Amino acid sequence: MKTHLPSLMLAAGLILALSGCNRHSHTSTSSTAATPKKTTAAAPAAPTPLVAGVKVKNAVLARGLDYLVKTQGKNGSWMPFAGPAVTALAVKALVQAGVPASNPIIVKAMKFIEATHQPDGGFYVGNALQNYNTCIVLSTLAVLPRQEYQKQITQAQHYLISLQRVGPMKNNKGQVITPKSGWYGGVGYGTGRPDLSNTSFFISALRDSGLPASNPAIQRALVFVSHCQEDSETNPMPFARGLHNGGFIYSAADGGISSAGDRDQVNGPPVLSAYGSMTYAGLKSMVYAGLTKNSRRVKAAIEWIRGHWTLNYNPGTGESKEGLFYYYLMFGKAFHALHINTITDVNGIKHNWRRELTAKLASLQRKDGSWKNIWSTRWLEFNPQLVTCYACLDLEAAGQ
Fold first, then answer.
1. How far apart (Å, rounded) are the C-alpha atoms in residues 351 and 360?
2. Which of 4, 141, 152, 343 has the most neighbouring CB atoms within 10 Å?
3. Three-class SS of residue 154?
4. How big, in percent rounded to 5, are the helix, strand and coil portions of the chain?
5. Predicted confidence band of residue 7 (pLDDT cuts 50, 70, 90)
6. pLDDT top residue among 313 and 36
7. Angle 87-92-93 (CA atoms, 0-180°, nearest 5)?
8. Structure letter (DSSP) for residue 185
9. pLDDT value at position 258?
């Protein structure tokens, strides 16, 4: 079974595409409500730290951005072997922090990104991770001076929509894709099997770049997202039959796929395990696609989150820390999209997600200002450039 891509993810990196999960791992989805340990990180120092000549009030964020500035490649890139995605993530984090597009750091990075612009409108290298790379670049172009990049934005939007799996396209078994298919409306790494991670980037990129939630491509993507949720009241997929937990799996395609494996039941077949990073990706995607807090699907996802609250690991994965920082990225983006500051877990404990996420990231920052997953090498989270981009974007979301 293939896994989702946090790395590619943007994220999640890229990379995920290159690894698989243990199909027969049986993990428990029981959760432990936990609050983050107190951090010993220093409070923001005075005077305010500087990043590329720009004042950044949050000292933890400033150190992370400074790390990115110091590790930029001579050709303007970060992790160039993955394509333009990680470079685009770094640019977005820096620009959102106040670094102007005219700054040499950004100019150099954009020159690298623009060199990957293909005739079809996508941004990628060698037909690798076309959707992921293009989505990340498109979301970054949206925070730059629009008049300079409107043509590239429009071309990238059209290219991404061309990758969406709809009829009369066929699935990997040669069957025409219909709205009842587990493939319908989704997007994968390129033109293959769709998954929730790539589809969530697809929705975010189109929305970030100006398309409304009512856009047909976004509404088709919402069908795929809903088909990944374990709630039989709103999801007709066979794997969701009898389930009402509200969590999300990696893909509705091919009968359903979970990167967290499955779990045995006393009666009936094994149940695909919903898990944190995909549940937050699904929740974010539903909100971006126009669903409100009163939607049955949104409420169900929030209930799953209330029962699986933790920042100590990726919930639903047997307390695994694989893809931990991708999980944090989806966590922050989902709550930011919901426009809420607090949530009460099933034990009645009220959590301020902004404070808890900020404290957790502060406690994990390394001396050089970077972050990396020291517990797992999976999904390229051993690479501090990738993970530092995640963390900086998370801190920015939490601070807004």
1. 13
2. 4
3. helix
4. 45, 10, 45
5. very low
6. 313
7. 100
8. T
9. 83
220-239 pLDDT per residue, tens: 999 999 999 999 999 999 99
Q: Hunting for tokens 């406690």 — which residue is that?
A: 363
pLDDT of residue 22: 33
pTM of the model: 0.87
State mean pLDDT over 161-185: 95
Tell me the two tokens of residue 319.
Answer: 């307390």
Q: Is the pLDDT of residue 273 over 80?
A: yes
Radius of gyration of the chain from its Cα atoms, rounded to whole angstroms: 20
For β-strands 262-263 and 271-272, DSSP reports them as antiparallel
How far is residue 200 from each of residues 6, 36, 94, 352, 360, measured CA to CA in Å? Answer: 11, 27, 23, 24, 24
CA distance linking residue 221 with residue 205, whole number of Å: 12
Domain assignments of the chain as residue spans, ordered by start: 8-20+43-399
CA angle 396, 66, 390 (to 5 degrees): 40
Pairing between β-strand 271-272 and β-strand 12-13 as defined by DSSP bridges: unpaired
